[in-house]
Write a structure and sequence with these properties.
The protein is α/β, with parallel strands linked by helices. About 35% of the residues lie in helices and about 15% in strands. Strands 3-2-1-4-16 form a five-stranded parallel sheet, with helices on both faces. The chain has a five-stranded parallel sheet with strand order 6-14-7-8-9. Strands 10, 11, 12 and 13 form a four-stranded antiparallel sheet that branches. Helix 13 crosses helix 15. The longest helix is centred in the C-terminal third of the chain and has 29 residues, at about 450-480. The mean pLDDT is about 95.
C-alpha cells in the first residue's frame, strides 16, 4: 500500500505552495506563501524517487534524512516525519524557510536531473515542523543529568543556539551572551519577516529558555566582561558571534549621508516591525519611503534589502550587480520574487562614485563585462570602457557581504588567534581556538555563510566540547 504512494514524479507535477499576489504581499512583512494543506504535502512528498544514493541528503550540510521523512509524509505519518527531521536539525522549520534549496537539496534532486522538477523539499520541511508545533509534538528540551560544569556561549545566532541546545541536553549549565536585546542574531534582526516571521524564531528561543539555558542579552564581551573573565566563570567557552563587519566600497562620495550599510537598514526595519522605537527609521535615515533606492550587491542580503525597500514604499528600487544573472551568488528564487514585486536589476554594473552635495543624490555607474575566470572559476568582472550611466538615488544600500570584526581587540584578548581574514583560528578536529577551553564555530570560523552551515557547526562543536568537558571532569576527579 505504501509503495503506491511514492514514485509519483512521472504523473504528478511539481507544485510549491501558492504565493500571494505580488502587489498584496509587497504591502506587509508577512511570509509570501502559506504552507501546504495536508493532502498537498503528502502528494508532493510522494513524488520522491527514494534514491539508493540520495544526493539531496549528501548536499545538505546537516545530512538530513530527507527521503525517509518524505516517505513518512507521503504515508500520512507526520509525527514520525517530524521526529526524524528533528533528529538531525535543531531548527528544521527555519531551514525550510530560508535555506537556498535550489543550490542544495532540491538543486541536487535526482528527478530534477531527469526533467521532472525537484521534490519541494524545503516547503515539505516547513510543513512538517509547523504542523508539529501546532499539534504539540515539539517536546520541551530534555536536559541530561547535571554534570556540575558550565559553558558560556558568546553569540545567540544559529550556531550558538544550536550548540547551546545540544550542550544543555548533555547536562551542562549553559549561559548564552549576546550583544542584542533579543536572541537569534541575524535570524531576528538581519532576515526580514517576509522570509522568516519572527514568532518562528521566538518560539525556538523560548523553548531553550524553558529548558534552563540562561540568556544574558544586551551583553557585550569587552564591555560587560572580558573574554578572560568569562573563562573564569565557565569550564568552557564557545565563540559563535558570526561576522558583522560590512565590506566597504572604495568609491568617491561613499561617506555621504544616505549611503548606508545593509545590516543597519535591515535591523532598523526589523526593529520597527517589533514595535521598537527606531529614531533613524522615523527621521528617514534608514527608511526607504518615497526614495529612489539603489542597492549594491548580488547576494541574499541584497535581495533582502531590495524587497524590504519595496515594502517601505520606495519610489523606485534598483539593484546593481557587477556580474550577470547567471553568475550572481544569491538565490534565483529570491531574484524572481524581487522582480515580481517591482525591483529592477541592473546587471553588469558597478558604482564608480556617489554624487550629491551633503547628501547622496545619485550614483555614477560603470558598465561591466565578464573577463577570464578568477581563482574561484567564475568569470571575473572588468570595466567595459564603452559603457557607463547615471542613476538617481536618495538612498544607497551597501550589501557586499560581511567580514569578521577584530575580536582580539573587542574582547580584550590579544592572545586569541585569528587568520589573515580576521576569522577565529581553530584546530580542525577539536574546533578549539588558541586558548585552552575556548572553542569557536559558525561564520566567525568559516566566514560569511549559510544558516544551515551555522547549525551544522553548532552541532559539531557541541560534540567536541562535550569530549573536552568529560576529560576535564575526569582529570579534576583524579586530582582530587
Amino acid at each position: 500500500m505504501a509503495d503506491s504512494l511514492l514514485l509519483k514524479f512521472v504523473d504528478r507535477d511539481q507544485a510549491y505552495p501558492a504565493k500571494r499576489d505580488p502587489e498584496l504581499r509587497a504591502e506587509d512583512f508577512q511570509e509570501i506563501a502559506d504552507r501546504y494543506a495536508v493532502p498537498d504535502a503528502e502528494q508532493q512528498a510522494g513524488r520522491c524517487s527514494q534514491c539508493g544514493v540520495p544526493y539531496c541528503s549528501v548536499h545538505c550540510p546537516l545530512h538530513n534524512h530527507i527521503p525517509d521523512w518524505l516517505r513518512l509524509t507521503a504515508e500520512g505519518r507526520l509525527r514520525e516525519a517530524y521526529e526524524l527531521s528533528n533528529a538531525t536539525s535543531t531548527m528544521p522549520e527555519i531551514c525550510g524557510r530560508i535555506c537556498p534549496q535550489d543550490r542544495l537539496c532540491e538543486g541536487n534532486c535526482v528527478i530534477e536531473f531527469s526533467g521532472h522538477g525537484a521534490v519541494t523539499i524545503g516547503a515539505v520541511e516547513k510543513f512538517i515542523t509547523d504542523t508539529a508545533w501546532e499539534e504539540g509534538w515539539v517536546e520541551p528540551l530534555v536536559v541530561g543529568p547535571a554534570r556540575g560544569q558550565s559553558v558560556g556561549v558568546i553569540g545567540a545566532g544559529p550556531a550558538g543556539l544550536s550548540a547551546a541546545e545540544y550542550l544543555r541536553g548533555n547536562g551542562y549549565d549553559v549561559h548564552v551572551y549576546d550583544r542584542y536585546d533579543r536572541a537569534g542574531g541575524l535570524l531576528t534582526y538581519g532576515i526580514p519577516g517576509f522570509k522568516l516571521e519572527k514568532p518562528v524564531v521566538t518560539r525556538r528561543v523560548e523553548r531553550l529558555k524553558a529548558g534552563g539555558i540562561v540568556f544574558h542579552e544586551s551583553f557585550e564581551v569587552g564591555r560587560d566582561a572580558t573574554l578572560d573573565e568569562l573563562r573564569q566563570r565557565h569550564d568552557a567557552l564557545l565563540i559563535a558571534t558570526g561576522v558583522y563587519k560590512a565590506r566597504a566600497i572604495k568609491a568617491p562620495g561613499v561617506e555621504r549621508d544616505g549611503v548606508v550599510d545593509a545590516l543597519d537598514f535591515l535591523t532598523a526595519s526589523n526593529r520597527k516591525n517589533f514595535g521598537d522605537a527606531v529614531p533613524a527609521y522615523d527621521d528617514g535615515s534608514l527608511n526607504a519611503a518615497g526614495k529612489h533606492v539603489v542597492v549594491i550587491g548580488g547576494g541574499d542580503t541584497a535581495m533582502d534589502c531590495v524587497r524590504t525597500a519595496i515594502r517601505q514604499d520606495a519610489a523606485s528600487v534598483k539593484c546593481l550587480y557587477r556580474r550577470d544573472r547567471a553568475n550572481m551568488p544569491g538565490s534565483q528564487r529570491e531574484v524572481n520574487n524581487a522582480e515580481e514585486e517591482g525591483v529592477e536589476f541592473v546587471w553588469l554594473s558597478a558604482p564608480e562614485s556617489f554624487v550629491g552635495e551633503d547628501r547622496v543624490a545619485g550614483v555614477k555607474a560603470s558598465a561591466m563585462r565578464l573577463g577570464a575566470p578568477d581563482a574561484s572559476g567564475r568569470r571575473a568582472p572588468e570595466i567595459d570602457p564603452e559603457g557607463g550611466f547615471d542613476l538617481q538615488a536618495d538612498l544607497v544600500i551597501k550589501a557586499l557581504g560581511f567580514d569578521a570584526e577584530d575580536l582580539p581587540r573587542l574582547f580584550d584578548a590579544p592572545e586569541l588567534g585569528v587568520t589573515r581574514w580576521g576569522t577565529v583560528l581553530v584546530d580542525n578536529k577539536t574546533l578549539m581556538t588558541s586558548l585552552d577551553g575556548v572553542f569557536a564555530a559558525g561564520d566567525i570560523v568559516r566566514g560569511a555563510s549559510l544558516v544551515v552551515w551555522a547549525i551544522r557547526d553548532g552541532r559539531d562543536v557541541a560534540a567536541t566540547m562535550h569530549n573536552f568537558l568529560k576529560a576535564k571532569a575526569r582529570t579534576a576527579k583524579v586530582a582530587a
